[in-house]
């Protein structure tokens, strides 16, 4: 998974992704308008959605495989520099293990929410303070629901889930603000198969 561009994109989206671009002939906004503008206009909340890394088994509640641990470590090295404010995972070992290296690198505790409570987690993410950066590790069948709760739709969804081998897809959602809709940017190089069977 090549996520080097993710750090740059996250910073750019967090700084300018929400506002209209400045132009030389645009009229200056009066001080009153600036004072009344919502805080998210200049510092939107950003949510990064990832599927858990590769798991060691299809049975029970498995931990990560060696490849999964390597992916989690790589993810941590790249995204720790973006200084996430929140880390969320489901109550499965594999999602928590995916964020464990990032939690250690940033000193942030992983907030655990039930895997089936995607709607409640979506509400919690929508309520993030302006300027927040949340990283969420979830499941192939939970990511589309979370994305929809944030106002965006993921591509490559089959029967309510992304492909079972889609470990390299990273979804960056800049939350909406006022009359500005949310924005979705997908990062990663692992292309899932649209016909592949879904697995959590």
Fold and architecture overview:
The protein is of the alpha/beta class and about 200 residues long. It has a single domain, classed as Phosphoglycerate mutase-like (Rossmann fold, 3-Layer(aba) Sandwich), CATH 3.40.50.1240. The chain contains six helices and six strands. The protein has a six-stranded mixed beta sheet, with helices on both faces. A hairpin with an 8-residue loop joins strand 5 and strand 6. Helix 3 (about 65-80) packs parallel to helix 4 and helix 5 packs across helix 6 (about 145-150). The longest helix is centred in the middle third of the chain and has 14 residues, at about 65-80. The chain is globular and about 45 Å long. The chain starts with a helix and ends in a 13-residue tail after the last strand. Residues about 1-35 and about 190-200 have low confidence and may be disordered.
């Amino acid at each position: 998974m090549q996520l080097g561009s993710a750090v740059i994109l996250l910073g750019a989206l967090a700084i300018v992704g929400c506002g209209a671009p400045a132009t030389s002939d645009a009229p200056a906004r009066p001080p009153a308008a600036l004072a009344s503008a919502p805080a998210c206009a200049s510092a939107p909340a950003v949510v990064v959605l990832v599927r858990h890394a590769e798991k060691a088994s299809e049975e029970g509640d498995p931990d990560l495989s060696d490849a999964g641990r390597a992916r989690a470590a790589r993810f941590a090295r790249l995204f720790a520099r973006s200084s996430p404010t929140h880390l969320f995972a489901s109550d499965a070992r594999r999602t928590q293990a995916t964020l464990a290296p990032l939690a250690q690198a940033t000193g942030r505790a992983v907030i655990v929410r039930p895997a089936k409570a995607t709607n409640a987690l979506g509400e919690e993410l929508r309520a993030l303070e302006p300027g927040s950066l949340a990283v969420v590790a979830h499941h192939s069948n939970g990511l589309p629901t979370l994305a929809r709760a944030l106002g965006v739709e993921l591509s490559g969804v089959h029967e309510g889930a992304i492909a079972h081998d889609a470990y390299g897809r990273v979804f960056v959602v800049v939350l909406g603000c006022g009359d500005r809709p949310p924005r979705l940017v997908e990062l990663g190089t692992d292309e899932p198969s649209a016909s592949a069977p879904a697995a959590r």
